[in-house]
Write a structure and sequence with these properties.
Layout (H helix, E strand, L loop, with lengths): L1 H4 L4 H20 L5 H8 L7 H28 L4 H21 L3 H30 L4 H30 L1 H21 L4 E2 L6 E2 L1 H8 L5 H6 L5 H6 L9 H7 L3 H31 L4 H29 L2 H18 L15 H16 L6 H16 L10 H29 L1 H22 L7
Helix pairs in contact: 2-6, 2-7, 2-8, 3-4, 4-6, 4-18, 5-6, 5-8, 6-18, 7-8, 7-14, 13-17, 13-18, 13-19, 14-16, 15-16, 15-19, 17-18, 18-19
Length: about 450
């Protein structure tokens, strides 16, 4: 029993899932520096279409995430053990990554990318659902903070790792590094033991607690000695109708926190993706910065999250996500407005000497720091809403709960923001970079109102 206890401990489950999510981010990001080589040298494509193929390759993953999320969430909630789904996802990730590495035609490359994206989405949804079920939705703030840090490390370290291994040993050496991460994940998943779900309340028990409960099962004589329920009490305990299919989402969206969490996550995603689309071109045109300085700006945007996300996650577990999220949206409004000022002829005071560069860099650091308050708001709120709804009506989402379907909706909102954000910001930037940032600031104000009204506010002890 003691041997299995550490395998079902919160710490080991947290480490295992963190490793899975880190591997998933690394697997996506490390391919970026390899794609030009794959398209030009392995597939023999002309250099003039490499950029277009790279865009299609990366966009394919986002589209698959949007359409596959509800299906993955449904399958996950119909399965009592998430461990087998995680193992299947890792196996699919390994096989599809191997096919991607070996691809010598566009058809094989995009087909393998399809299955790779499917496995990646499953790892995220099932992995976070595993954390919520085993560690508890009341800790989703800290969990989301950890996830944000892991994602930032994977996103930032992936291209560095891929490029370094490619330079040191070539194409296949780079891929061996990715395969090694997947194999380590598979081993951790085989070692991990899920806690058992108790009936009714949906709580999870480790193997030792399960054994203690089993020893307390009443005997037939105990049952005979129990008083019989009155007819009135029997009438009151009406059977709960399970909400499945589209009824699950209709029922969940009636909860204000669920709706506000999904929409807040969607706006947050739009804000992040707008930088990827417009920032590089703007600073190169206005400040004539090189690639290194642009990279430093992205580090200023992403770096604070690696340090501040766990702290803000702990804060949200203590006071709820209403006021941190509201403060996050409102506090970035002046900095979004000020971000559009340098380079605009209507504000000559901001374009004297290097003042514009200083203002822009300062705003980027502040936005990167304050946006950490929004990390994980979708995952935190949807799991909290599901826990509250199941507490009111136990079994309403089936014997295995509804965390996976809820997290699938959160994942969809984030991915849709990543798809819509570049289109929206690119269109607005054609009108004017200042105008684009004013629209982003307005979105933040509207999202802050939504958060203040609908998100949860609670204090943990």
């Amino acid at each position: 029993m003691a041997q299995a206890q550490w395998r079902s401990s919160n710490l080991f489950i947290l480490v295992s899932m963190a490793m899975a999510l880190l591997t998933d981010e690394l697997l996506y990001a490390f391919m970026v520096p390899l794609l030009p080589y794959m398209f030009e040298h392995r597939l023999g494509l002309d250099n003039s279409i490499v950029q277009r193929c790279t865009l299609l390759f990366l966009s394919e993953g986002a589209l698959i995430c949007v359409f596959s999320s509800p299906i993955i969430g449904h399958v996950s909630d119909m399965t009592s053990s998430k461990r087998n789904l995680l193992l299947a996802s890792l196996a699919l990730a390994f096989v599809s990554s191997l096919a991607t590495a070996m691809a010598e035609s566009l058809f094989v490359l995009f087909a393998s990318r399809f299955f790779q994206s499917l496995a990646s989405n499953a790892l995220w949804i099932v992995g976070i659902a595993t954390l919520a079920e085993n560690i508890g939705s009341e800790h989703m703030g800290k969990i989301s903070g950890m996830i944000s840090t892991v994602a930032a490390v994977g996103t930032s370290g992936g291209p560095v790792l891929g490029g370094m291994l490619f330079e040191l040993g070539g194409y296949w050496t780079a891929w061996m590094g990715a395969f090694a991460f997947i194999l380590v994940d598979i081993v951790l998943r085989l070692l991990m033991v899920e806690k058992k779900r108790t009936k009714g309340e949906g709580k999870m028990l480790d193997p030792e607690q399960e054994a203690l409960l089993a020893s307390e099962i009443p005997t037939p004589s105990d049952l005979l000695s129990e008083p019989v329920l009155s007819a009135a009490a029997a009438v009151e305990s009406e059977p709960v109708v399970e909400q499945s299919g589209w009824r699950f989402y209709a029922y969940a969206f009636r909860h204000p926190g669920f709706f506000a969490g999904v929409t807040s996550f969607f706006v947050f995603s739009i804000l992040i993706s707008s930088f990827n689309t417009t920032m590089t071109l703007h600073v190169q045109r206005v400040f004539h910065w090189d690639t290194f300085r642009v990279g430093l700006l992205f580090a200023a945007l992403q770096g604070p999250g690696m340090l501040l996300s766990p702290v803000f996650g702990w804060l949200k577990d203590r006071v709820g996500s209403r006021w941190p999220t509201t403060a996050g949206f409102l506090s970035v409004v002046p900095f979004f407005w000020l971000l559009g000022v340098p380079g605009d002829d209507r504000f000559p005071w901001a374009n004297e000497g290097t003042r514009g560069q200083t203002i822009y860099s300062f705003c980027m650091i502040m936005i990167g720091s304050l946006l950490c308050l929004l990390n994980g708001v979708g995952n935190m709120e949807v799991t909290t809403a599901i826990s509250e709804l199941e507490a009111e009506r136990p079994g309403i989402f089936g014997p295995n709960g509804g965390y996976s379907r809820a997290l699938a909706m959160s994942s969809m909102s984030w991915t849709m923001g990543l798809l819509i954000g570049p289109v929206l910001s690119g269109f607005l930037a054609e009108v004017g970079y200042y105008e684009m940032n004013c629209v982003m600031a307005l979105l933040c104000v509207l999202a802050a109102v939504n958060a203040a009204i609908n998100l949860s506010s609670r204090r943990r002890t």
